[in-house]
Write a structure and sequence with these properties.
The chain is built from 2 helices and 9 strands. It is an alpha+beta fold and 156 residues long.
């Protein structure tokens, strides 16, 4: 026995859908629904990665001229010696200053910044210099990177 099956897609030979021919109103309604769904969506469903932290201690010296006496008590460093100095956080190639961070009165610093690779240098101040700076560091998400700095004031 031979069965004849009628296929309605033959009524609409130009339709890309074999069993369905969408009307313009249906296409418009579907497009509008997709647009409204996209407009209601949050722009970013994932939280940004946590920042990295750059921290360290700073020592500055000598702060007065003259010979160093080994048995002399350690001279207390005034707070302004630290607070008048700081570091620059630059792009890896050193062409753009991303952020400047001034040292705290107790000779420490800490900054939270986006994870990336940066060049760290002293903010230019007189004849100060620090061995090992500028240096390129990579800060990772959620990690603390410590960079201790010893500044030579050039006073002799």
């Amino acid at each position: 026995m031979k069965l004849n099956i009628y296929f309605p897609h033959r009524l609409f030979p130009s339709s890309p859908f074999p069993l369905f021919s969408p009307s313009p109103l249906l296409l418009f309604t579907f497009s509008l629904l997709l647009f409204l769904l996209a407009a209601c969506a949050e722009p970013n469903d994932f939280p940004p990665p946590p920042n990295g932290i750059l921290t360290g201690t700073v020592s500055v010296g000598p702060i007065s001229p003259g010979p160093v006496q080994l048995d002399a008590p350690t001279e207390e460093v005034p707070a302004e010696v630290y607070t008048s100095r700081g570091i620059q956080i630059m792009t890896e190639d050193g062409t753009h200053v991303f952020k400047e961070v001034m040292f705290e009165a107790d000779g420490t610093y800490s900054v939270e910044i986006e994870p990336d690779t940066y060049q760290i240098a002293l903010i230019p101040s007189g004849i100060d210099w620090a061995e090992g700076l500028p240096v390129v560091l990579t800060l990772k998400p959620g990690e603390t990177t410590t960079l201790d700095i010893v500044i030579d004031t050039g006073i002799r």
